[in-house]
Amino acid sequence: MSAPVIGVTSYVEESSTGIWHDQHAVWLPDAYIAPLRAAGAVIAVLPEQDPALAADALARVDALYLTGGYDVDPASYGAAAHGETDAPRAARDAWELALVGAACEAGMPVLGVCRGAQVMNVARGGTLHQHVPDVVGHDEYQMGDAIFRELGVSVLPDTLLASLHPLEREVPMYHHQAIDAVGEGLVVSARSVHGLVEAVEDPSRAFCLGLQWHPELDGLTAVWEAFAAAARAYGTR
Q1: Catalytic (active site) residue 208
Q2: Residue 165: what pLDDT?
Q3: What is the pLDDT of residues 176-205, one digit of tens each?
Q4: pLDDT tens for each residue of 200-219
Q5: % pLDDT > 90, the chain
Q6: CB of 48 within 8 A of CB of 91?
Q7: CA dist 59 to 4, 17, 62, 210, Å?
């Protein structure tokens, strides 16, 4: 069978490497895509561009993977910016929200990680907690300096996630925002030990899953294999 092609969103930021300094660059940590390569998928990076091209871009791939990054602009869900919220990346927000809409319209498999899960929720009319310490009273979810903290999650039974992940497990966290009001058509499929929404999914779709934690770092393969399998099935319909 042909390898599935998965469209992956990316950063577009100022970057420096080797002799190149302060370059406006498309980049993506390899950790995000390594599990998909291991699952047999081909990776197609989808950097921000005209949102009107979202459906055209997705017509050439078999699934959409929304990766992490800076905070979603609170204006996109009708809120004023919190003092701790990142400066908006308007072009990335517009592109990724358009991709989610086009993917839903096409019935395409979708996986969102960290920011990606938040984009999925906002695209469905949901909202976000802009600063998790205001909700839980501490900063253990994002300790800074790229230090991932292992915190417990409880996965709800009878969900797609429950078929792919232990019901109780510590997972790597690094987020200072989280889902608040859940978007239309989505259901909560995991919560943290402090009650925060840590995963959502659309039970009407074969594979539409958003994970607030970082599954690319937790060593489990079932989510990635199932996502690649869903992409392959979509591509060979």
Answers
A1: no
A2: 98
A3: 999 999 999 999 999 999 999 999 999 999
A4: 999 999 999 999 999 999 99
A5: 90
A6: yes
A7: 13, 33, 8, 22
Per-position DSSP letters for 88-134, written without gaps between them: P-HHHHHHHHHHHHHHHHHT--EEEETHHHHHHHHHTT--EES-HHH
Alpha-carbon distance values, 159 to 53, 60, 102, 103, 152 (Å): 33, 29, 24, 21, 18
Query: Would you list the domain boundaries of the chain?
Result: 5-235
Measured CA to CA, the distance from residue 167 to residue 116 in angstroms comes to 22
Tell me how far CA of residue 61 lies from CA of 26, 52, 64, 118, in angstroms: 19, 17, 8, 22
Q: What b/e readout covers 172-183, taking b as 16+ CB neighbours within 10 angstroms? A: ebbbbbbbbebb
User: What's phi and psi for 199, nearest 5 deg?
Assistant: -155, 145
pLDDT given at position 3: 96
Please tell me the pTM assigned to this model: 0.96
Antiparallel, parallel or unpaired: β 110-113 and 208-211? parallel
pLDDT at 198: 98
What distance in Å separates the CA atoms of residue 170 and residue 214, rounded to the nearest whole number?
11
pLDDT at 15: 83
β-pair type (178-179, 128-129) = antiparallel
User: Quick one: fold of 5-235?
Assistant: Rossmann fold (3.40.50)
- Catalytic choice (48, 96, 114, 175): 114
**Radius of gyration (Cα) for the chain, nearest Å?**
17
Question: Which amino acid makes up residue 58?
Answer: L
**140 has catalytic annotation:** no
